[in-house]
Every structure is written in C-alpha cells, then in structure tokens.
Amino acid sequence: MATYEDFTIDQGADLALQIELVNPDGSKKDLNGYSAAAKMKKTYRSEESITFTAVIPSPAIEGIVTLSLTNLQTDQLITRGRYVYDVEISFTDEEGTTIIERILEGKIKVNPSVTR
C-alpha cells in the first residue's frame, strides 16, 4: 500500500522532490532494475495529466527516487486548487512479467503566481 502525503506547488516555480524508500527492516530499498513514473491530474478521471520527470539516481542501492517539474510545467497549472498524484516504481521479473508498486500518492495544492 502506498504512503499518502499532501504537498504544495508554487505555480511558475521549479519543483524537485526526493523520495527515500526503505524495506520493512529499515534498510534502503535496492532499486537496481527498477524504473519510476509519476503523474498529476485535476481529478482521478481527468484526461489531461502532467508527467513528472521521475529518476532513480545512481547508485540505485540508495533507494532514492527523484521527481521534478520545470517552471514551464508548473506555470501550466492554470486551474488553482487541488490536484491528485501518484508515484509508481516497476521492474520486470525473470519470467518477463512487469511488477508495478505504487509507492506514494496524495493531493497537491497549487498556489497561484502573481509574477508570470
């Protein structure tokens, strides 16, 4: 089950988030062979979405996923208010099956910008 966390984005500003994943025993999750993906939408049923740049930086054994949006992307968040988002990691097992795990989800509040 994913962790739930709400956060705020300033419209027109760059955004960078770092997620640190740990195993149940407290050790860092080894993300070798994993990829990450994240999107946000106005509602769960919205057709339009904004895709985060989701990266697992080297060394992957540190269990870190970084998410970012450029100021151009956040400037497009014209509808102020709340959005929903989630972050997933995935890998393909030995049998060729893709395993997807949602690691984070929640709501994002967008603070509108005056200086644009």
Helix content: under 10%
Strand content: over 45%
CATH topology name? Immunoglobulin-like
Based on secondary structure, the structural category is mainly beta
**What number of structural domains do the residues give?**
1
SSE pattern, N- to C-terminal: EEEEEEEHEE
Rg from alpha-carbon coordinates: 15 Å
Distance between the termini: 39 Å
The second-level CATH architecture is Sandwich
Shape: elongated
Largest sheet report: 6 strands, mixed
What is the C-level CATH assignment? Mainly Beta
Count of strand segments: 9
Briefly summarize what is shown:
With 116 residues, the chain is mainly beta. The protein has one helix and nine strands; from the N terminus they run βββββββαββ.
Report on this structure.
- By secondary structure, the protein is mainly beta.
- The chain has a single domain (3-111), classed as Immunoglobulin-like, CATH 2.60.40.
- The chain is built from 1 helix and 9 strands.
- The strands form 2 sheets. Strands 1, 2, 4, 5, 8 and 9 form a 6-stranded mixed sheet that branches.
- The model has no long low-confidence stretch (mean pLDDT 93).
